[in-house]
């Protein structure tokens, strides 16, 4: 199957070729002909499957004929977050460069002036987040009665973010006789109901869930105490051949704290979460994409659907509360055929959450074990195969985390000094690729709990020979 078989125009085929795509992805192969035939569509798919092009490409051809009118966009794409909206807009620019189509991005957090001007001049494709769209609609700055085509993207995320009433309101303002496409990674009952209400005889396409089937992602869970999470993360960042990583936390406050801690430890990290204004979010993303920073600490809201090439690692610093978020988070790596590794930190309190993830993905996540560790695990501080330097003594941890309990003296298991702050074990250095950051300040969080064989037991290389089978 190639793109030419799907019924797209010559101009689009040229743009697709220039984008470097040789073969349509499964969702594109199924969706594109259906959209060109003006059918309604339900796509059960998540980012990483090529779903954006599956609606953007045929939409460009569908919209190619017709006249723009002031204040009345001809088509509407609803996205749950500003980043996703901006990403879809980039796709439009890339694929639509051989067409005379006007596209406008309507998102919060930026000045309204240019958006209003563009609406006044007439828009073929409007890409919007529900909040800003509702705002303009209520002020009478936009009319939806000329909108013949609607895309509701990431519907399950819209649900999580409380946008369903807005979506229903918007759907009701659109002409009944329109084409509607709905994309969602999962189909909870509310989304099913929404689809039943607003779509007519839709074609349903389901592509495999990346989290359960993407063989490019190697996923692990690590049983770790809350207070040892950061140390474990830093160890992995240093030792698991991390090139670029996204670290997810469930809380904005933790995103901020973690980013600060990582920077203090010498990592090149940045942060992205809902409390950061749009401009800063875009700048932070640009820094990450350009390699200025190689670690992005993120909350779910800000990071959903981000399409960043070459993310080698995803860390779930917190087990996500919603199992769907797990699917989305780890889908940030292993994209477009690349390999990726995903680590989920699991505390005792996360037992139910991780269970829900495994139920949803219908697979048990492997516990990170000795066989999976990428560095050479020798007791002696000899140079590893990866030519990492012999380790340096650690310093004590001077951070005063609100959530951290005071350090306890070690138990005798590893026969280490009693004081957590004492000069510590040998430690291996990170691989050369990730070593662009400043020298790290070493931290020490001593291990004091025995672990089950095969389970992670904290970050120190020394323990690895002890805690595993
Ligand atoms: P999406 O699922 O829309 O987020 O797309 C995921 C990634 O796949 C994006 O980086 C796209 O540029 C890329 N992509 C989309 N379609 C294709 C294709 N047919 N062949 C190769 N890569 C693609």
Give an overview of the whole structure:
The chain has 17 helices and 14 strands. It starts with 9 loop residues before the first helix and ends with a helix. The strands form two sheets. It has a seven-stranded parallel beta sheet, with helices on both faces. It has a seven-stranded parallel beta sheet with strand order 10-11-9-12-13-8-14, with helices on both faces. Helix 2 packs parallel to helix 3 (51-63) and helix 3 (51-63) crosses helix 4 (82-95). The longest helix is centred in the N-terminal third of the chain and has 14 residues, at 82-95. The protein has 469 residues and is α/β, with parallel strands linked by helices. The radius of gyration is 24 Å and the shape is globular.
Keywords:
single chain; 469 residues; Rossmann fold; binds adenosine monophosphate
Bound molecules: adenosine monophosphate
Please identify the top-level CATH class of the largest domain.
Alpha Beta
What is the CATH homology-level superfamily of the largest domain? P-loop containing nucleotide triphosphate hydrolases
- Tally of distinct domains: 2
With strands numbered from the N-terminus, the spatial order across the biggest sheet is 3-4-2-5-6-1-7
Helix percentage: 25-40%
User: What would CATH call the architecture of the largest domain?
Assistant: 3-Layer(aba) Sandwich
In DSSP terms (H or I, runs of 4 or more residues), the helix count works out at 17
The shape is globular
The secondary-structure class comes to alpha/beta
Instruction: Tell how many strands the DSSP assignment holds.
Output: 14
C-alpha Rg, in Å?
A: 24 Å
- How much strand content do the residues show? 5-15%
The unreliable regions are 380-451, 461-469
Straight-line distance between termini:
48 Å
How would a crystallographer describe the biggest sheet?
A: 7 strands, parallel
